[in-house]
Batch of 4 targets.
Target 1
Amino acid sequence: MELHNIHKICPLSGFTLNIEEISGLEVAMLQRKREENLPGKLLFWGKIFGTTQDYLVVLYIDSSDEFPVKKYYYCTTSDYTLRAVPQLSTEYESQAEGIALQFTGDPSFMAYNGEEPEEPVDPDDPDAPPPKEVFREVHRLSFIIKQIDHDCSVIPRGALVVDATKKVIFNNYYTGLSYHTSAELRAFSHFRFPENPQGIAAMKKPGIIKADFLDCITKDVPTEMWTVCHNSSGTASYIRNLYWEGYNFYAMIGTSEYGGAYFGTGVPNLDLAFML
């Protein structure tokens, strides 16, 4: 979501960014955009709480491919320098999946599963062995960001379309959801490459694509992990995910404005099945 719209999900999450964090992110996003010559916008993705400091995550969407590709950057609340999250091997993904502890806020933290930090190596010693690559908290951060985005990132129905070249693009003619439609979960889909065969086939179908090709959130199990409601003035629809507590999404009724962000610990609610 746009950084300047962060206040619009505060009624749901109860969290926001302070002035220092907003200012630091604005400068860091501008710097990263110029360094990588990014043509589009950098969007705020969320904040993951740590025991010593927090992670701030931003998102860049590349629309040049067949389906929009997301690239994530992170910084901490003590160092507003955006860095790309690393790509993970299958081994690191398995290791990250087995950790259910709260983040510390230190990207270099490595004492998971009883591992001890390595002895420091003298950088001036020509015979010193190269540093060994080990699993660190930044790798777990990368895994959690992608998991949350896969499970939670939503978009209103009609906001994405397939153009004549079979590329999925943002719909410039999207005018928003009506009041009654925005109160139904079926009006929202996952913002990810479709995983159902019908959606993939619909994307490749010749001619104009009129069918919904994205995965609807009503197909998630259990469906009750999603809640939808209107604000008191009836001008916005709010979506909340109960499995990844802290993800909230809003869509302004009758306009093309929408956005979502995550404020949480990065640990899923594994007791959800017993709470429904």
Target 2
Amino acid sequence: FADTVICRRRVVLVVIFNSPFYKNIPFLKMLYGPSFRGKMVFYGPFAEPRYGVEECRCFMKGHLQHRCVATAMERYPGFDGYLWIADDSVLNVPQFLLDTDLDSLWTMKADSYWPLGSYVKIFDWPVPQNWHWEDPIMGITQVLSAYQILPEKYKQRMVSSIGASASVATAWSDAGYIPVKYRRDFIEMVSIFENVTFECAIPTIMRLLCENVTKELVEFNGAYLFKVWPDVTAPILHPVKLSQRSKRSKVQSWLSDAYRFYKNKASREGTTTLKRQCSLQGLSAQHILTNNPQ
């Protein structure tokens, strides 16, 4: 392939570090920088000026990632959207830009690996075991507190948006995207669910933001590297430990194949998405992906 995919929207890309593996940042900039020219923000458990890492309040080892997303929205207004991804995940850039409507919310859904199902009723007992649900700091106690102060309009949406009344959604939440039109409401909702673990807070908030969830929300399955390396249509990979040189090489190869696949797909089919939100012009993706920062 000859070209990378460039996002025409002014998108803030937020990379959230659960642990301070900040030496991976030059590699991440090589992967994402040419496509996302709005702004890249790095959050972690502590600031590191050498790598441009900002501290996110009360980080809790990554379990409160929604706070980081809201913080980015507050610090960097005036952009078209906000995309986040965990540092141990890899975004399929061409898949996201060519196959995703950037006017819609984009979030992960509960898949076959997820232990809880797509939602949990708040007042059902006993609560699910072997997950953060039991955690006194960010589990059911905090969910109940959030529900008590949740505006009535959001409680009324729970049946249509989540699947049951007095319920919260649960899912993997290692990546997501929020168009600017939801920015203020998302910040407000994070202030309500700020102490709830992100794998409950984020899917709940994303669904409750929707007046019509089928029209406003795009759900996707990630590819979890427990058995085999996935095909090039997987929206994200997780977990990927980029401190390991062998994993970087696999990521490069996988993304190279993905760029080639989606470039050919766009050339064959043509898309309104391509004209509206991204282009296939610009820097050589081969150059981007073969440079491997130490």
Target 3
Amino acid sequence: LLDYWVFGATSRAQAYTRGDCIPRTYNIDHPVTAASSDAAALTGNQNNVAYTTETMFDGQLAVAAEVNHFKTHKGVFNFVVPVLASGEGATAYKVVLSFLDIQADIDRLFWERLFKDFPALQKPFTEAKKAEFLKFFQSTMEVVDDEAAVTAIGGPFVLQQWQEAFITPAMQWRIAEKFADAVEIHATSVNRYERRAMREALERVMKISHNVISQQPWAHEQITNPITSDINSFRAWHEAGNW
């Protein structure tokens, strides 16, 4: 138990790690190596990584060889995307749109509170950057029911913010959580079920967008696996049905 709670997954474990039995350390922390004929031919040991003179000095090819060799965490490397009930996507978009119509609330409830908790974000968040994020939230929430459409909008956005603006995926989650908090405080005229739908829809948007990272040739499952980087907390773990 100590191994799991202290050294393994967080209390907000994903759906595939929960059940009647606590996940063991052997399928959480320790890599399971996959033997291959290529490795045997190249290195004389089928349990080695199939490095060659070409893959050894190429970052993307080396990672690809390692991905084929190390299968940690049962090979799972994507977030489990929540499914919205019928009509929840449209409801969530309506709630978000009502918030985005009032600039004073955006400044007071979102940006001020975000910068108070994360002062380092004040420098990269120019007016143009603020507009980018607000447009991202609005455009993805508009098509939240369409996973392919969210991927097309959110995937490039997540990668661009990470690679060009150096806003990491974990920080992007924090920003989205602050946005959800601000919308919820603003939306006093809607009932709690509509506010909950907004949170679930925004959680869905962020998970779909961040799942694009695992599709990159340089991304290893050890950095994209939700067990090792369970950075979402849109809902309490018990409310989400996790541990």
Target 4
Amino acid sequence: MGVISLQNFIFTKFPESLAYTEFKTSSDKKKKLILVDGWSCIKAVYGSHMDFICGGQWQEFRASIRRFVDTFQQVGCDLVVFFTGTVDSARRSEWAERQGEAKDAVNTVMHGIRQRGQPPDRKNFIPNETHPQVLRQVLLSCHVKVISTPGATDRAMVQYALENNAYGILANDSDYVLLNAPRYFSLHHLRFSGNNITTMEVNREKVSELADLPQSLLPLLSYLVKSQFSEFHKVLANNQEKTETKNDLEVLIQNVLAFIRELPASFKEEGLTDENLDELVHKVSQSVSCVLPLDVNLRHSQLSNIFVIGTPRGQR
């Protein structure tokens, strides 16, 4: 399951964690630093009036990007946009899953065109390989700082935000909530009206409260719902009572939440520390390894890495 599905779960099950936000020029005229996930941003700047099937409307695309940057600058926001460089080994299964989802979306679009002579809803919009390159070029021409990360952008953006006192992160990925971004603004809810910019901020503390999960354990939720743990998910499903709901993704997340809640009380009281991290990783790795023929040391390494930023240990 991808991070988008987890984000949708947060939006639908924990609506109280969303707060309406309007970007405004501060009274002291101080600039706000906003970090933007470049790949997620493409859909936001590819205007609804543009044909996303045939494409080719590069002039309109460039103009839309410039308006995006100009509007933020007019309300006192400086943008830094991040793009993923390469897909690291730990993310290959997730990347493969997303490619499969993109292929399914293409099939849905083509089926709609064949059946009705017109494309389906824009929710099936898929950027092509040229869109990120054009976005980079136009951003640079607008004097916006662009950063390419050697691996996934999420941890790099959170680390950059913490080190540079950023106002927040604008993206479409629940990992930024679970990895403890300073503030997370939803690109999905981003709206422009003249020079007014509004969106929804996801409150990490509220998500923690509604999920009945300590903030220090939220990164573990983000990691264990990923598709590479599909066999682990089956074990959890077999251990839980059957429910009437037909939403498999919702059941999966609820099962993982229940698993994490059953961790020893010391983790909930102390959070993740240098002293108990190894114990937690061993417990999770042992559970996974009993159903997956994978190397425990690799699991230990991958699980350890997700806590580098998401816990007090990573913020030292």
